[in-house]
Amino acid sequence: MSHSPLPETERTRHRRLREQGSRDRAQLDAILAAGFVCHLGVVVDGCPMVVPTVYGADGTNLYFHGSVASRSLVASPDALVCVTVTHVDGLVLSRSVFEHGVNYRSAMVYGVPRLVTDPAEKLAGLRLLTEQSAPGQWDYARRPDRKELAATALLALPLDEASVKIRVGPPDDGDGPDAGLDVWAGVLPMSAVFGEPEADPALREGIALPAHIAARRG
Amino acid sequence: MSHSPLPETERTRHRRLREQGSRDRAQLDAILAAGFVCHLGVVVDGCPMVVPTVYGADGTNLYFHGSVASRSLVASPDALVCVTVTHVDGLVLSRSVFEHGVNYRSAMVYGVPRLVTDPAEKLAGLRLLTEQSAPGQWDYARRPDRKELAATALLALPLDEASVKIRVGPPDDGDGPDAGLDVWAGVLPMSAVFGEPEADPALREGIALPAHIAARRG
């Protein structure tokens, strides 16, 4: 896993001032590691299409299922995609509506995904993708057999061209004229949490909830 | 607010079987009402670009800030966009890795956004956008003045062409051969919750947390 800064390209140069842009590789890896659903943008017949899908990332590649993007990627396997991962961390409640905003961490990755054909990489990529959302399940559940592997198209997007945007901290209008208003200002934090596991109604009797799932309750 | 079914177009026809597609208007409205961050997809010089941004929706239009998409939308104001709103509701932990998945609700809206120039619609759209993430704040915080309104570009995307995808319920492999395995299966629910409000360190003394913000704690 490289720690060189991400190269700046025309697409990843940050244009706006209020959000904190970065091309820091550690930040990119941290944002990708903190989630498991991305929004995949592809161009189909000149039109943008944004599809949510699960992913796994290892610092070098971001893996996702090829079927999600099949309409465009099968037709043009060398087409550029944009994958965006966003974590919403809170509402920024300023004194003025104009200064309202969101605390968030977001990563955008651009590139041409590659169809993974090497069996070892495909298995490793699927493991990564599974473990990113459901750690422990690769070793616990039944792994894909030969037929299932053949039925799965896996794509690898290199993490070479990416940018990160982060907003943290309190409102920005605490030192301006609005600070004199009788208006509460601050941040309402937000996070995604796991609830109580719900057993499949079809689950056979006597199968206990494994510790690696139970441990995820928020 | 119309309750006619959403028209089926080449882009919104559902191609995959395992996810439940719909063009039901009530479902679309419910998914849009349940969030406040969307992923906006635009095409810039032939490349897809997916940007997270806040929105407000009223059953007829989806409003978002024009600045987010300025690079493409200012250049080509009649360019198609795709706005996707996704709620992740849980992990589907099946007996086999192959059947793992996510419970989610997702809406995709396609169209050409219109720059809102009518002052009354602009104010109503900004109110909608503010209230969607921070209900109560439009009447509580300082509203935009003439200068702030002029500095804000608001876009309206008609909710005419849209599709909805939803996955709910337990794993799909409860009635297949894998049901005999000694593997726990079920759903790990997930939701976004608000935490304890954090006052701006610059907040003047004596300003109490208003009830409409306090009430949102999860």
TrEMBL record, chains A, B:
The name on file for this protein is Flavin-nucleotide-binding protein
Q: Where is the signal peptide?
A: none
Provide an example Pfam family for this protein.
Answer: Pyridox_ox_2
Q: Where is this region: Disordered?
A: 1-21
Per its UniProt record, what Gene3D superfamilies does this chain match? Electron Transport, Fmn-binding Protein, Chain A
